[in-house]
Protein backbone atom coordinates (compact mmCIF):
# COMPACT_ATOMS: atom_id res chain seq x y z
CA UNK A 1 0.00 0.00 0.00
CA UNK A 2 2.79 2.38 0.85
CA UNK A 3 4.58 1.98 -2.48
CA UNK A 4 1.32 2.83 -4.32
CA UNK A 5 0.79 6.01 -2.31
CA UNK A 6 4.36 6.99 -2.87
CA UNK A 7 3.97 6.52 -6.64
CA UNK A 8 0.83 8.63 -6.68
CA UNK A 9 2.54 11.41 -4.74
CA UNK A 10 5.49 11.40 -7.12
CA UNK A 11 3.11 11.63 -10.10
CA UNK A 12 1.30 14.61 -8.58
CA UNK A 13 4.59 16.35 -7.90
CA UNK A 14 5.70 15.80 -11.48
CA UNK A 15 2.40 17.21 -12.75
CA UNK A 16 2.72 20.32 -10.57
CA UNK A 17 6.27 20.74 -11.76
CA UNK A 18 5.12 20.74 -15.40
CA UNK A 19 2.48 23.29 -14.57
CA UNK A 20 5.03 25.56 -12.94
CA UNK A 21 7.35 25.30 -15.90
CA UNK A 22 4.55 25.77 -18.42
CA UNK A 23 3.17 28.88 -16.78
CA UNK A 24 5.92 31.28 -17.91
CA UNK A 25 5.41 30.25 -21.55
CA UNK A 26 1.67 30.73 -21.29
CA UNK A 27 2.08 34.10 -19.59
CA UNK A 28 4.58 35.20 -22.18
CA UNK A 29 2.30 34.10 -25.00
CA UNK A 30 -0.55 36.25 -23.74
CA UNK A 31 1.28 39.59 -24.01
CA UNK A 32 2.51 38.54 -27.42
CA UNK A 33 -1.04 37.90 -28.55
CA UNK A 34 -2.21 41.12 -26.93
CA UNK A 35 0.54 43.13 -28.61
CA UNK A 36 -0.33 41.62 -31.99
CA UNK A 37 -3.95 42.53 -31.48
CA UNK A 38 -2.90 46.09 -30.53
CA UNK A 39 -0.85 46.38 -33.69
CA UNK A 40 -3.78 45.14 -35.73
CA UNK A 41 -6.01 47.73 -34.07
CA UNK A 42 -3.46 50.45 -34.82
CA UNK A 43 -3.28 49.36 -38.43
CA UNK A 44 -7.07 49.40 -38.51
CA UNK A 45 -7.27 52.98 -37.26
CA UNK A 46 -7.15 54.32 -40.82
CA UNK A 47 -10.10 55.20 -43.02
CA UNK A 48 -11.18 51.59 -43.24
CA UNK A 49 -12.08 51.48 -39.56
CA UNK A 50 -15.41 53.35 -39.70
CA UNK A 51 -13.94 56.49 -41.32
CA UNK A 52 -14.51 57.48 -44.90
CA UNK A 53 -11.37 58.12 -46.93
CA UNK A 54 -11.04 61.79 -47.87
CA UNK A 55 -9.67 61.30 -51.37
CA UNK A 56 -12.91 59.85 -52.82
CA UNK A 57 -14.80 62.68 -51.12
CA UNK A 58 -12.50 65.16 -52.86
CA UNK A 59 -13.11 63.50 -56.21
CA UNK A 60 -16.87 63.68 -55.69
CA UNK A 61 -16.62 67.39 -54.83
CA UNK A 62 -14.56 68.02 -57.96
CA UNK A 63 -17.25 66.45 -60.10
CA UNK A 64 -20.06 68.29 -58.28
CA UNK A 65 -18.25 71.62 -58.50
CA UNK A 66 -17.60 71.17 -62.19
CA UNK A 67 -21.26 70.40 -62.77
CA UNK A 68 -22.29 73.52 -60.83
CA UNK A 69 -19.98 75.67 -62.93
CA UNK A 70 -21.27 74.28 -66.21
CA UNK A 71 -24.85 74.84 -65.04
CA UNK A 72 -24.04 78.36 -63.83
CA UNK A 73 -22.31 79.30 -67.08
CA UNK A 74 -25.25 78.00 -69.11
CA UNK A 75 -27.76 79.87 -66.95
CA UNK A 76 -25.72 83.07 -67.15
CA UNK A 77 -25.51 82.79 -70.95
CA UNK A 78 -29.27 82.30 -71.15
CA UNK A 79 -29.91 85.35 -68.97
CA UNK A 80 -27.61 87.47 -71.14
CA UNK A 81 -29.42 86.30 -74.26
CA UNK A 82 -32.70 87.42 -72.70
CA UNK A 83 -31.25 90.78 -71.60
CA UNK A 84 -28.14 91.89 -73.56
CA UNK A 85 -27.79 94.99 -71.37
CA UNK A 86 -26.63 92.81 -68.46
CA UNK A 87 -23.14 92.78 -69.96
CA UNK A 88 -22.92 96.53 -69.44
CA UNK A 89 -24.59 97.17 -66.11
CA UNK A 90 -23.97 93.98 -64.15
CA UNK A 91 -21.14 93.39 -61.67
CA UNK A 92 -18.43 90.84 -62.42
CA UNK A 93 -19.91 88.69 -59.65
CA UNK A 94 -23.54 89.58 -58.98
CA UNK A 95 -25.33 87.23 -56.60
CA UNK A 96 -28.60 88.62 -57.93
CA UNK A 97 -27.72 86.52 -60.97
CA UNK A 98 -28.23 82.83 -60.03
CA UNK A 99 -25.76 81.83 -62.74
CA UNK A 100 -23.02 83.79 -61.00
CA UNK A 101 -23.96 82.19 -57.69
CA UNK A 102 -23.57 78.71 -59.17
CA UNK A 103 -20.25 79.65 -60.79
CA UNK A 104 -18.82 80.94 -57.51
CA UNK A 105 -20.18 78.01 -55.48
CA UNK A 106 -18.85 75.55 -58.05
CA UNK A 107 -15.42 77.15 -58.00
CA UNK A 108 -15.23 76.96 -54.21
CA UNK A 109 -16.41 73.34 -54.25
CA UNK A 110 -13.74 72.42 -56.79
CA UNK A 111 -11.00 74.11 -54.75
CA UNK A 112 -12.03 72.15 -51.65
CA UNK A 113 -12.34 68.95 -53.68
CA UNK A 114 -8.90 69.39 -55.20
CA UNK A 115 -7.40 69.91 -51.76
CA UNK A 116 -9.03 66.77 -50.36
CA UNK A 117 -8.00 64.72 -53.39
CA UNK A 118 -4.37 65.83 -53.09
CA UNK A 119 -3.99 65.83 -49.31
CA UNK A 120 -6.53 63.14 -48.42
CA UNK A 121 -4.11 60.18 -48.05
CA UNK A 122 -1.88 62.12 -45.69
CA UNK A 123 -4.81 63.46 -43.67
CA UNK A 124 -6.26 59.95 -43.34
CA UNK A 125 -3.10 58.86 -41.49
CA UNK A 126 -3.69 61.47 -38.79
CA UNK A 127 -4.55 59.82 -35.46
CA UNK A 128 -6.76 62.61 -34.09
CA UNK A 129 -9.91 64.03 -35.56
CA UNK A 130 -8.78 67.69 -35.34
CA UNK A 131 -5.58 66.93 -37.26
CA UNK A 132 -7.56 65.11 -39.89
CA UNK A 133 -10.42 67.56 -40.39
CA UNK A 134 -8.76 70.81 -39.30
CA UNK A 135 -7.02 71.58 -42.62
CA UNK A 136 -10.19 71.08 -44.74
CA UNK A 137 -12.10 73.29 -42.31
CA UNK A 138 -9.42 75.97 -42.70
CA UNK A 139 -9.77 75.80 -46.49
CA UNK A 140 -13.55 76.25 -46.22
CA UNK A 141 -13.09 79.25 -43.89
CA UNK A 142 -10.56 80.82 -46.27
CA UNK A 143 -12.94 80.39 -49.21
CA UNK A 144 -15.77 82.05 -47.27
CA UNK A 145 -13.56 85.00 -46.32
CA UNK A 146 -12.36 85.43 -49.91
CA UNK A 147 -15.95 85.29 -51.14
CA UNK A 148 -17.06 88.00 -48.71
CA UNK A 149 -14.10 90.21 -49.64
CA UNK A 150 -14.81 89.77 -53.35
CA UNK A 151 -18.49 90.60 -52.85
CA UNK A 152 -17.56 93.84 -51.09
CA UNK A 153 -14.83 94.77 -53.56
CA UNK A 154 -15.13 96.29 -57.03
CA UNK A 155 -15.84 92.78 -58.37
CA UNK A 156 -19.19 92.90 -56.64
CA UNK A 157 -20.12 96.29 -58.00
CA UNK A 158 -21.63 97.21 -61.29
CA UNK A 159 -19.31 97.67 -64.26
CA UNK A 160 -21.45 100.47 -65.59
CA UNK A 161 -20.01 103.94 -65.33
CA UNK A 162 -21.61 105.77 -62.45
CA UNK A 163 -23.95 108.21 -64.13
CA UNK A 164 -24.60 109.73 -60.71
CA UNK A 165 -21.01 110.08 -59.62
CA UNK A 166 -19.73 112.56 -57.10
CA UNK A 167 -18.33 116.02 -57.80
CA UNK A 168 -14.98 114.50 -58.74
CA UNK A 169 -16.39 113.66 -62.18
CA UNK A 170 -15.95 116.07 -65.05
CA UNK A 171 -19.03 118.09 -65.83
CA UNK A 172 -20.08 120.18 -68.75
CA UNK A 173 -19.88 123.97 -68.41
CA UNK A 174 -22.99 125.53 -66.91
CA UNK A 175 -25.37 126.29 -69.76
CA UNK A 176 -27.81 129.13 -69.78
CA UNK A 177 -31.02 128.66 -67.86
CA UNK A 178 -33.76 127.13 -69.92
CA UNK A 179 -36.28 129.73 -70.96
CA UNK A 180 -38.91 127.04 -71.28
CA UNK A 181 -38.67 125.91 -67.69
CA UNK A 182 -36.90 128.71 -65.90
CA UNK A 183 -34.75 125.99 -64.30
CA UNK A 184 -31.76 127.11 -62.29
CA UNK A 185 -28.88 125.00 -63.60
CA UNK A 186 -25.61 124.37 -61.79
CA UNK A 187 -24.04 121.41 -63.54
CA UNK A 188 -20.62 122.07 -62.07
CA UNK A 189 -21.44 121.87 -58.38
CA UNK A 190 -24.39 119.51 -58.64
CA UNK A 191 -26.08 121.97 -56.36
CA UNK A 192 -29.80 121.70 -55.87
CA UNK A 193 -31.97 124.38 -54.30
CA UNK A 194 -35.62 124.34 -53.39
CA UNK A 195 -36.86 127.89 -53.59
CA UNK A 196 -33.64 129.09 -55.23
CA UNK A 197 -35.59 130.75 -58.04
CA UNK A 198 -38.22 133.42 -58.09
CA UNK A 199 -41.47 132.77 -56.24
CA UNK A 200 -44.08 130.96 -58.32
CA UNK A 201 -47.78 131.52 -58.63
CA UNK A 202 -50.35 129.31 -56.95
CA UNK A 203 -51.09 127.33 -60.12
CA UNK A 204 -47.42 126.46 -60.67
CA UNK A 205 -47.03 125.53 -57.03
CA UNK A 206 -50.06 123.26 -57.21
CA UNK A 207 -48.74 121.57 -60.36
CA UNK A 208 -45.31 121.04 -58.78
CA UNK A 209 -46.92 119.56 -55.67
CA UNK A 210 -48.95 117.16 -57.79
CA UNK A 211 -45.88 116.12 -59.80
CA UNK A 212 -43.87 115.43 -56.66
CA UNK A 213 -46.77 113.37 -55.31
CA UNK A 214 -46.71 111.27 -58.49
CA UNK A 215 -42.98 110.66 -58.12
CA UNK A 216 -43.44 109.76 -54.45
CA UNK A 217 -46.24 107.30 -55.25
CA UNK A 218 -44.04 105.53 -57.82
CA UNK A 219 -41.16 105.23 -55.36
CA UNK A 220 -43.41 103.82 -52.64
CA UNK A 221 -44.68 101.11 -55.00
CA UNK A 222 -41.18 99.62 -54.76
CA UNK A 223 -40.38 99.99 -51.04
CA UNK A 224 -37.37 97.65 -51.11
CA UNK A 225 -34.63 96.89 -53.58
CA UNK A 226 -36.03 93.39 -54.01
CA UNK A 227 -39.35 94.94 -55.09
CA UNK A 228 -37.55 97.03 -57.71
CA UNK A 229 -35.77 94.00 -59.15
CA UNK A 230 -39.03 92.08 -59.28
CA UNK A 231 -40.61 95.07 -61.02
CA UNK A 232 -38.08 95.11 -63.86
CA UNK A 233 -35.44 97.50 -62.56
CA UNK A 234 -31.79 96.43 -62.85
CA UNK A 235 -28.66 97.71 -61.15
CA UNK A 236 -27.07 100.72 -62.83
CA UNK A 237 -24.71 101.68 -60.01
CA UNK A 238 -24.02 100.27 -56.56
CA UNK A 239 -24.42 102.20 -53.34
CA UNK A 240 -22.41 105.39 -52.98
CA UNK A 241 -22.63 107.83 -50.10
CA UNK A 242 -24.92 110.75 -50.69
CA UNK A 243 -26.60 109.29 -53.77
CA UNK A 244 -27.57 105.71 -52.88
CA UNK A 245 -27.79 102.66 -55.13
CA UNK A 246 -29.28 103.27 -58.58
CA UNK A 247 -31.65 100.80 -60.23
CA UNK A 248 -32.77 101.64 -63.76
CA UNK A 249 -35.60 100.57 -66.03
CA UNK A 250 -33.85 100.85 -69.38
CA UNK A 251 -37.07 100.69 -71.39
CA UNK A 252 -37.94 104.18 -70.07
CA UNK A 253 -34.84 105.80 -71.62
CA UNK A 254 -35.61 108.23 -74.44
CA UNK A 255 -39.20 109.00 -73.45
CA UNK A 256 -40.74 112.37 -72.66
CA UNK A 257 -40.48 113.60 -69.10
CA UNK A 258 -43.10 111.97 -66.88
CA UNK A 259 -42.88 112.54 -63.11
CA UNK A 260 -44.72 109.25 -62.54
CA UNK A 261 -42.14 107.23 -64.52
CA UNK A 262 -38.61 107.97 -63.30
CA UNK A 263 -35.91 106.05 -65.14
CA UNK A 264 -34.20 105.12 -61.87
CA UNK A 265 -35.09 104.32 -58.28
CA UNK A 266 -32.62 105.12 -55.51
CA UNK A 267 -32.02 102.82 -52.51
CA UNK A 268 -30.23 103.17 -49.21
CA UNK A 269 -28.00 100.11 -49.69
CA UNK A 270 -27.15 97.13 -51.86
CA UNK A 271 -29.03 94.50 -49.84
CA UNK A 272 -32.39 93.22 -51.14
CA UNK A 273 -34.10 94.67 -48.08
CA UNK A 274 -32.68 98.18 -48.57
CA UNK A 275 -35.37 100.87 -48.54
CA UNK A 276 -36.18 103.27 -51.34
CA UNK A 277 -34.93 106.81 -50.67
CA UNK A 278 -35.67 108.71 -53.89
CA UNK A 279 -35.99 108.67 -57.67
CA UNK A 280 -33.90 109.85 -60.59
CA UNK A 281 -34.73 111.03 -64.10
CA UNK A 282 -32.45 110.50 -67.12
CA UNK A 283 -33.37 112.56 -70.19
CA UNK A 284 -31.80 113.49 -73.53
CA UNK A 285 -31.81 117.13 -74.63
CA UNK A 286 -29.53 118.90 -77.11
CA UNK A 287 -30.83 122.37 -76.24
CA UNK A 288 -30.04 122.59 -72.56
CA UNK A 289 -31.83 121.14 -69.56
CA UNK A 290 -35.01 119.24 -70.46
CA UNK A 291 -38.44 120.44 -69.52
CA UNK A 292 -39.09 118.80 -66.20
CA UNK A 293 -40.91 119.72 -63.04
CA UNK A 294 -42.98 122.87 -62.88
CA UNK A 295 -41.24 125.97 -61.61
CA UNK A 296 -37.59 127.04 -61.44
CA UNK A 297 -36.46 124.60 -58.79
CA UNK A 298 -35.38 121.40 -60.58
CA UNK A 299 -31.62 121.39 -61.10
CA UNK A 300 -30.41 119.01 -63.82
CA UNK A 301 -26.79 117.97 -64.21
CA UNK A 302 -24.72 116.13 -66.79
CA UNK A 303 -22.02 113.47 -67.12
CA UNK A 304 -20.83 113.88 -70.70
CA UNK A 305 -18.43 110.97 -70.40
CA UNK A 306 -21.33 108.52 -70.20
CA UNK A 307 -24.24 107.44 -72.34
CA UNK A 308 -27.02 104.87 -72.25
CA UNK A 309 -27.74 102.92 -75.42
CA UNK A 310 -29.90 99.94 -76.37
CA UNK A 311 -27.58 97.55 -74.52
CA UNK A 312 -27.03 99.62 -71.42
CA UNK A 313 -24.67 102.29 -70.16
CA UNK A 314 -21.20 102.92 -71.59
CA UNK A 315 -18.01 104.89 -71.08
CA UNK A 316 -17.37 107.50 -73.76
CA UNK A 317 -14.26 105.54 -74.81
CA UNK A 318 -16.09 102.23 -75.06
CA UNK A 319 -16.23 101.16 -78.74
CA UNK A 320 -19.70 99.72 -78.24
CA UNK A 321 -20.82 102.95 -76.63
CA UNK A 322 -19.40 105.02 -79.49
CA UNK A 323 -21.26 102.87 -82.00
CA UNK A 324 -24.56 102.87 -80.10
CA UNK A 325 -24.63 106.29 -78.50
CA UNK A 326 -22.50 108.61 -80.60
CA UNK A 327 -22.41 111.86 -78.65
CA UNK A 328 -25.66 111.29 -76.80
CA UNK A 329 -23.81 111.25 -73.52
CA UNK A 330 -23.18 114.96 -73.92
CA UNK A 331 -26.91 115.50 -74.32
CA UNK A 332 -27.97 113.38 -71.34
CA UNK A 333 -29.34 115.18 -68.29
CA UNK A 334 -29.92 113.75 -64.83
CA UNK A 335 -32.09 114.86 -61.93
CA UNK A 336 -32.51 113.43 -58.42
CA UNK A 337 -35.76 113.90 -56.55
CA UNK A 338 -35.70 113.09 -52.83
CA UNK A 339 -39.44 112.55 -52.45
CA UNK A 340 -39.59 109.60 -50.03
CA UNK A 341 -40.83 110.50 -46.53
CA UNK A 342 -38.03 110.27 -43.99
CA UNK A 343 -35.34 110.80 -46.63
CA UNK A 344 -35.90 114.48 -47.35
CA UNK A 345 -32.67 116.16 -48.39
CA UNK A 346 -31.64 119.18 -46.35
CA UNK A 347 -29.85 120.37 -49.48
CA UNK A 348 -33.13 120.48 -51.40
CA UNK A 349 -35.64 118.10 -52.92
CA UNK A 350 -33.77 118.22 -56.25
CA UNK A 351 -30.23 118.22 -54.85
CA UNK A 352 -27.77 115.90 -56.57
CA UNK A 353 -26.58 114.58 -53.19
CA UNK A 354 -28.40 113.82 -49.96
CA UNK A 355 -26.35 114.09 -46.78
CA UNK A 356 -28.74 111.70 -45.02
CA UNK A 357 -27.12 108.86 -46.98
CA UNK A 358 -23.80 108.13 -45.21
Quick structural overview:
With 358 residues, the protein is an alpha+beta fold. The chain has helices at 2-43, 54-82, 86-89, 98-124, 129-152, 202-220, 225-230, 319-325, 328-331, and strands at residues 234-237, 245-248, 264-267, 276-284, 306-309, 312-315, 332-337.
Q: How widely separated are the two ends?
A: 120 Å
Question: Tally of extended strands?
Answer: 7
Q: How many individual domains?
A: 2
Radius of gyration: 38 Å
Strand content: 5-15%
Give the uncertain stretches in residue-range form. Answer: 1-5, 8-17, 19-30, 40-45, 154-193
Largest sheet: 5 strands, antiparallel
Average pLDDT, to the nearest integer?
A: 73
Give the ordered list of helices and strands: HHHHHHHEEEEEEHHE
Q: What is the overall number of helices?
A: 9
Give the structural class: alpha+beta
**Largest sheet, spatial ordering of strands:** 1-2-3-4-7
- Gross morphology is elongated
Describe this protein's structure.
The protein starts with a helix and ends in a 21-residue tail after the last strand. The N terminus is likely disordered. The chain is built from nine helices and seven strands. The protein folds into two domains: 103 residues, no CATH class; 196 residues, no CATH class. The radius of gyration is 38 Å and the shape is elongated. The strands form two sheets. The protein has a five-stranded antiparallel sheet with strand order 1-2-3-4-7. Strands 5-6 form a two-stranded antiparallel ribbon. The chain is α+β, with helices and mostly antiparallel strands and 358 residues long.
Amino acid sequence: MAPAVESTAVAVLHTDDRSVHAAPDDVAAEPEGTGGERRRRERGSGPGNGRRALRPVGLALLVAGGGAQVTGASLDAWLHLRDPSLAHHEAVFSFANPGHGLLVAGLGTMVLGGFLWAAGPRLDRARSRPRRLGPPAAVVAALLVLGLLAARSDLGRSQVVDVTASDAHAHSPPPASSAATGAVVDVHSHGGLLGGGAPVDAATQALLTAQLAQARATALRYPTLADAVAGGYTEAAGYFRGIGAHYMRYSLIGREFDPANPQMLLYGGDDPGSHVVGVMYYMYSSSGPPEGFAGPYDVWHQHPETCVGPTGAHFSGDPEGAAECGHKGRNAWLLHAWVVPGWDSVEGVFSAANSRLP
